[in-house]
Amino acid sequence: MKQISLNHRVLALIISFGIFTACSNDVNEDPVNPEPEVTRWITIAGAKMGDNPGDGNGGTLIYSVSSEDAKDPTISINPFENGFIAPSNRTARLQASEDGSTIFNISYAGDTGGNYTKYSVAGGQKFTPIGSEVSIAPYVGTAPRWIKLFDGDKTGSAVYVSTEHQVNDNGTPNDATDDVYTYTKATIGVVTLDLENSSINKFQEHVVRLSPEEEAAGYYFSRIDMPTLNAAGDKLYIGGRLSKVNPSTVESDSGYEILGSKTIVLDYPSLLNPTVITSTVGHGNTNGYRSINAFEYNGSVYQANQSDPEGSHILKIGANNEYDNSYDFNLDDALGVTGAYVLAWRPAANGKAVLAYRHEGSADGLAGAQGFFALVDLDAKTAVKIDEIPYDPDFYLFQYQGFAVDGNEIYLTQAPVGKNGNIYVVDTETSTVTKGAELVNTTGSHFIGAW
Predict the structure, then answer these.
(1) I need a surface site. Which of 80, 308, 340, 445 has the fewest CB within 10 A?
(2) Which residues are CB-contacts of 336 (< 8 A; sequence separation ≥ 6)?
(3) What does the angle CA 148 – CA 149 – CA 151 come to, to the nearest 5 degrees?
(4) Tens of pLDDT along 298-322?
(5) Whole-angstrom distance, CA of residue 107 vs CA of residue 120
(6) Host domain of residue 207
(7) Domain for residue 249, yes or no?
(8) Residue-wise pLDDT tens digits, 12-32
(9) 417, part of any domain
(10) How far apart are CA 200 and CA 155, in angstroms?
């Protein structure tokens, strides 16, 4: 098993270049056996254990290999021993450029929480800082929820929501016996970040209202995340989670009716004129968790939902910026399971995607419910579990963040908590699955994706 701490092809190229330039100014490469160029870097991220196995709170380490090496099962890589520490108090929130040559990071929590940095990728643990840092903490706090928009790697967006229960406009539930709950005020903040120049583009705050009936019943936006641009580039969609209070007591409610999935829509780039759209097909949340939850494909935006009583759906928002309720893609039905829950997903340009999920039949592992991968076709509305990937009760995907996409190929990481695994490459066009480089793990830690 070959161990690499710097991509061996790049290292050979550097050595060869040094030798040839020392001997002659006229010879730059071996014309018979030229060294292959790196076509794409694949960056692997590992989340180190903090106090408990799988919590990922010990920091994030990243390591890059060429796409050729990523597909090579004789190569072994160990980010936990040889990786670059991505600045973050807890698990870093990572994004990559479309070609894999740049990594973007916003640190999460702690003294550096909210700091944006970017790095050029050069193989192994070599990530070179580019430009200056900028903090988005003054706008969205030190534990921001952010995403890179698909606009040619130009813009990122981060969001937050704060809530305040309104009782007789200015009272609190304990002020007087006749206090009456009216609604929960949800104030959202949205910032856009210039990824190229490390600067703030725009910031806006809004109070986002639900229908009078929903508000009177105690529903409100309690979490928002995963901003996504529409195909026209003039609207920003923000996924949301609804919570509910008991209007009689203004205490958190449970066992309530799950409403239709909702998305907040803003004008872009102004971030003005918030509206809320509601699906009649899917119910539950659209904010996702650690990974991008919605993607533009073929003129529409496709969005996963979570905590749907009928199992997760892939929902469709059409070019008219409304849910297309004629598009019904239920993952329980497609996968033949009960309680499907989308943990992360990513489509290639052909509309075929790799999806990480769990379900009610998942084993209870060391850090949580066991995860699986499926190959999804957005046009055919099909989903098939990828059986070529080995599964383990400790294969934990709740914190999974990223898939690397190179043409029709999607790269993913497979390794149970604290155990070794591999990179796998899925050719979405042919459904071929290739077992790639070995991933060396360490006690209590896990891999959170490929970029």
Answers:
(1) 80
(2) none
(3) 125
(4) 999 999 999 999 999 999 999 999 9
(5) 17
(6) 132-328
(7) yes
(8) 333 333 433 333 333 334 555
(9) no
(10) 10
